[in-house]
Amino acid sequence: MTFTSDSASTRFSSSFNYNNQTADTVTSTIAVFKALTVDDQLAVLWYAYTGMGKSITPAATGAARLQLAEGSLNQIKKMSHLEQLEAMRDLAAQKNTQISCSYGILSANTKLAFWYELAELMAKGFVVPVPAGYQMSRDGAQVLETLKELDFGQQITVFRKVVIEMGVDPLAD
């Protein structure tokens, strides 16, 4: 499905109530996020986690068992930057790889914490960051702006939904 910025704007504006943000806004944000290119999905996660990470962290890591994800995170750290980017793309695109399968069996909170830790590793230079000068699409920028306007609970709902569906659950049929 091709997704244009006009359709994203229409989808957001038709479900957004400026006096009271509704569940439709969360649903629309998730739908638009899923329609983004894999690179724009990764960029939105990167900018959201680095920009809003302080509020996401307690919800993600408080109930997470990050030690279950440490093996995958360490594997990613040992890769070249090109391999790191491919591993993240594979997660977002749900490609059947060893890291995607390891990620796929994690709990929702651990998946939230995984992406937070990955963003931290990117910020510290251990993992390839978003390239300097990367131009996110209009739809990606709209998703990011909408995320900033959501309340904390709605933000977590969006992040939880999008990261849960990444990777491959080897136990699912």
From TrEMBL:
Listed GO MF terms: chloride ion binding
InterPro entries tied to this protein: Orange_carotenoid-bd_N, Orange_carotenoid-bd_N_sf
Gene3D superfamilies: Orange carotenoid-binding protein, N-terminal domain
One GO CC annotation: phycobilisome
UniProt KW Thylakoid keyword: yes
Residue intervals of the OCP N-terminal domain: 23-173
Record's protein name: Orange carotenoid protein
Organism expressing this protein natively: Nostoc azollae (strain 0708) (Anabaena azollae (strain 0708))
